[in-house]
């Protein structure tokens, strides 16, 4: 509703002569076509504030101009229609070398698999080199942090493997 339009208007960055209303229409049409609007309202109240305070999160990796908290930078799955609203681009095109990120990927098994591969690859690429330690003991770079949240549906077979994942697991 109006809160969504207000969020978009606050994020809008005029880069050419295309009116806000046209850009907002294109973005909302894309999200509706993807069936993605529902996902944008699944954020747990207070999660963003808590991750900012506790972990210093500054960027939401799997967001949209519709749901990205105004105080965070964001990457989106629709960078072509979201750049005008501040998207950094597709999360799959970013180089995640350092930073503190909120990761709340879309609740779709293929997308969750791709997101997990991306995050694990970024962590593997960001190990600190310690000259006196064996390679298996090399710690992760403390300047790369992911705060991950996603839905688990143990009653639905495509999501059943995710039911075993607990929030406190490393």
Q: What would you say this structure looks like, in words?
A:
This protein has a four-stranded parallel β-sheet, with helices on one face. It has helices at residues 2-11, 20-34, 47-55, 79-82, 109-125; strands at residues 59-63, 73-76, 99-103, 144-148. The chain is built from five helices and four strands. Strand 3, helix 5 and strand 4 (144-148) form a beta-alpha-beta unit. The model is unreliable at 157-170 (pLDDT under 50). It is of the alpha/beta class.
Order of helices and strands: HHHEEHEHE
Order of strands, main sheet, comes to 2-1-3-4
Extract low-pLDDT stretches: 157-170
Rg from C-alpha positions? Answer: 18 Å
Label the overall shape.
globular
Q: Decide which structural class fits the backbone.
A: alpha/beta
Tally of individual helices: 5
The total strand number stands at: 4
Q: What share of residues are in beta strands?
A: 5-15%
Helix content: 25-40%
Mean pLDDT: 76
């Amino acid at each position: 509703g109006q809160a969504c339009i207000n969020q978009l208007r606050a994020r809008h960055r005029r880069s050419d002569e295309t009116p806000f209303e046209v850009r907002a229409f294109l973005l909302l049409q894309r999200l509706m076509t993807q069936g993605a609007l529902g996902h944008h309202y699944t954020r747990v109240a207070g999660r963003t504030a808590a991750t900012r305070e506790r972990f210093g999160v500054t960027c939401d990796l799997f967001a949209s101009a519709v749901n990205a908290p105004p105080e965070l930078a964001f990457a989106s799955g629709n960078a072509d229609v979201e750049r005008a609203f501040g998207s950094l681009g597709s999360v799959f095109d970013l180089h995640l070398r350092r930073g503190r990120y909120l990761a709340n990927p879309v609740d779709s098994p293929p997308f969750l698999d791709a997101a997990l591969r991306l995050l694990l690859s970024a962590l593997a690429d960001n190990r600190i080199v310690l000259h006196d330690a064996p390679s298996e003991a090399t710690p992760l770079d403390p300047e790369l942090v992911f705060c991950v949240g996603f839905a688990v549906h143990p009653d639905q077979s495509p999501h059943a493997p995710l039911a075993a994942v607990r929030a406190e697991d490393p």
